[in-house]
Amino acid sequence: MSYNLLKGKRGIIFGALDENSIAWKTAVRVHEEGGTFVLTNAPIAMRMGKIRDLAEQTGSEIIPADATSTEDLQNLVDKSMEILGGKIDFVLHSIGMSVNVRKGRHYTDLNYDWMTKGWDVSAVSFHKVMQTLYKSDAMSEWGSIVALTYMAAQRTFPDYNDMADNKSYLESIARSFGYFFGKDKKVRVNTISQSPTPTTAGQGVKGFDGFISYAEKMSPLGNATALDCANYTVTLFSDLTKRVTMQNLYNDGGFSNTGVSQEVIERFTEE
């Protein structure tokens, strides 16, 4: 069901790879709610994914960009405003990568060059995106910027590795830049802390199926799906949340506030 929540709004969506990705589902929902947008991803990710199918489905144009390159981001912002015919109303940052996770390096034995790369892609890129938008005065008043994060920024999940540090930094950037974007431009900046979700990126984490199963048993409402996250993001892009900013918002079925569930107790008291 569509409510035309984003009718007339223009945006940029980072990170759509395939039908499993949260960014992909968000793009579909934004399109259904009347929003128009440019799709962007790193050139290597575009070769691996199906972003052209999504562009066709939503009537969108694609601008390749390395989110760690300020030059690429400036080109993205300038061309997006040209294509969309005005300032940007919403941005989704759905980017995360850890070379250490991908290559199976334990947290106590990190390769620091890989760590720096992951930190740049997963967190510093969010600052670079916002700084480019801010300096270009590219965001409309009451615009909305959202990045995706995970509970490992607050609690220890051993196999989440250095991605936990990346997400902690991402959330801090959202608060810090959110202050200036709100004060100077009336733009909102928030992060969504999503349940573990079986996306292509998420499934690269060791023991991911265990994460999902445990969170499902711990969450009173069960795990939030990628579509649930897309719907939540739409509300944050809409005018219904104009005074919500600098928040880390949990979309996790209640996991973040549950100490222990009956299902978990029963699992560990089975004879």
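That was protein one. Protein two is written in the same sequence-then-structure order:
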Amino acid sequence: MKIGIDTFACDGGKSAVGVYLTQLLKRIPPSEVNAELFGWDFDQFAYSEAAPDLEFIARCSINGKTANHLWHIARYPKFAQSRDWDACFFPAAHKSLPYKSPCLSVGVVHDMAPWWNASKTDRIAALVRFLLPNALRRLDRIIAVSGWVKQELVDLAGVKESRIDVVPNGIDLTAFYPRPRNEESVLLIQPFSFRRPYMLYASRLEHPLKNHVRLIEAFGIFKERTNYPHRLVLAGADSNGADKVHEAAQASKYRNDIFFTGHFPSTSLPELYAGADLAVIPSMYEGFGTGVLEAMASGVPVVCARAGSLPETAEHAALYFDPKNCEDMADRMVTMITNREFYRECRGLGLERAQAFSWDRCAEATLKIMHDITGK
């Protein structure tokens, strides 16, 4: 089976979608799949460690969402036809997708955020909002990372349920696992120094979708109620609306206890999770909720928003709050930190829940779908 794999919207392997692609590439058996990667010129070495034997075909040197969409609309059909693939695989079909494909196509939808975020005043965004549902419906098969995303595909894009397979993402349990706690009050992860105890939210700084501003307010309420020494660590690069997040932190009475890391190296993220007392996931919308599993696998209890797919991913192993209610969010944070018996119970349930997700199973199910549609 010969397939093309589109890497255009996978962020050089550094985002959650990038991790998804990297983990799948590690598990593609060369004996049964002849795969070719294609994408930005500057990504040609991004996946060489995960897939050293796969060919990368550089197709575009102009970075940006506009260039991405235009290339897929204008250039992809002729390029794909020249490669003679049995099928093309789009790991980020919600962000990067041609309007038509000359070969069979399978796309993975991690969320429908591009639909919800499309500005009516931005012409390119408006065009994406118009074309995305049609492009998704033209795929031969769609993989949704959660039941929540599947339902959105049906409701927003009009995709038939019979053409959607739910294949959850995995978690790398060789990287994310509980680490021994020493008595030192400072955790050193070069080039950072984290003073314990701290609670963690690892996500790009995006307002309002990721809900950092309300988390900062809830953290202030937590500090007022408990007078505990905890810090709030916000690990993630600035994105749309990040200035609002920084302004909220600066205005907080507890600004000296709020720490921004900026872009945090993915290789060091497991250690950062394992050193936390608590993970807080306040996001207003998540298609899967990778952060939930990363925390749970690290032995860190989770309090999270009852929003999007988060309850589906975490199930009964997390404590939930209304993401629009700062008092409710703070109340769950206080409960988890002050009730040690409940803390230990949630920690155990989280470790058990993380075991249910596997990259091996994700890759196996994905390859089966590719074999099914190609008949090879």
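The mean pLDDT is 93. Keep this in mind for the problem set.
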